[in-house]
């Protein structure tokens, strides 16, 4: 699986990993995010909004968060993405 994004402003970056789990719930800035895809692909600041793609090229999620060990910590190998079905439903609602 591949994670696309622009970590730290480095446009067009692609990293590889596996889907580690599905259906994860995390706390982020006081909000709860549920039904997330967990991945070990390196996801860093700037990857949010980028595509998470499976081995067939199908977009399976949108990168949204990473787990860290502290405020100044970087990637520790635990990233999260919103499933593409959820992202598509939100986009449809926003489009009216």
From TrEMBL:
Organism ancestry: Bacteria, Bacillati, Actinomycetota, Actinomycetes, Micromonosporales
Protein's GO biological process: proteolysis
Protein name: Peptidase S1 domain-containing protein
Domain of life: Bacteria
Keywords: Hydrolase, Protease
Organism: Phytohabitans rumicis
Family according to the record: Belongs to the peptidase S1C family.
Gene3D superfamilies xrefs: Trypsin-like serine proteases (2.40.10.10)
TM ranges: none
GO molecular function (one): serine-type endopeptidase activity
Nucleotidyltransferase keyword on record: no
